[in-house]
Amino acid sequence: MKTHNTKTSQKKIIHIIHQEFDSDLTLDEIATRLHYNPNYLSSIFRKEMDISFSEYLSSYRHHVAKNWLVETDMSVKEI
Questions:
Q1: Which residues form the HTH araC/xylS-type domain (predicted)?
Q2: Which of 4, 18, 25, 28 is such that its CA lies 20 to 30 A from the CA of 58?
Q3: pLDDT along the chain (79 residues), means of 10
Q4: What confidence score (pLDDT) does residue 3 get?
């Protein structure tokens, strides 16, 4: 059951990142929303993803920015 809860929490974190990557998103804010301790969420995220929350968020933001540069007429400044 613990593994299921860990996977579910990790999926919820990723969903929030993908939906709100363009805001000032923090692990503390997500932990509050999901009713978990930030240290616990950080630990399970790193364990499941093999990357920290902040590294994942930064990587996802770069991924989205690259896609926008290729797929839209937006300038680097706009992105």
A1: 11-79
A2: 4
A3: 71 96 95 95 94 97 93 83
A4: 60
- Count, residues in the chain: 79
Count Cα neighbours of 1 within 13 Å in the Cβ-side half-sphere.
Answer: 0
For domain 2-71, the question of CATH label 1.10.10.60 is answered with yes
pLDDT the model gives residue 1: 46
Residues 6 or more apart whose Cβ sits within 8 Å of residue 58: none
Can you tell me whether residue 78 is helix, strand or coil?
Answer: coil
DSSP 24-38: ---HHHHHHHHT--H
Question: Where along the chain do its domains lie?
Answer: 2-71
Closest CA to 36 of 13, 65, 63, 66: 13
Tell me what pLDDT residue 75 has. 82
pLDDT for the residue 42? 96
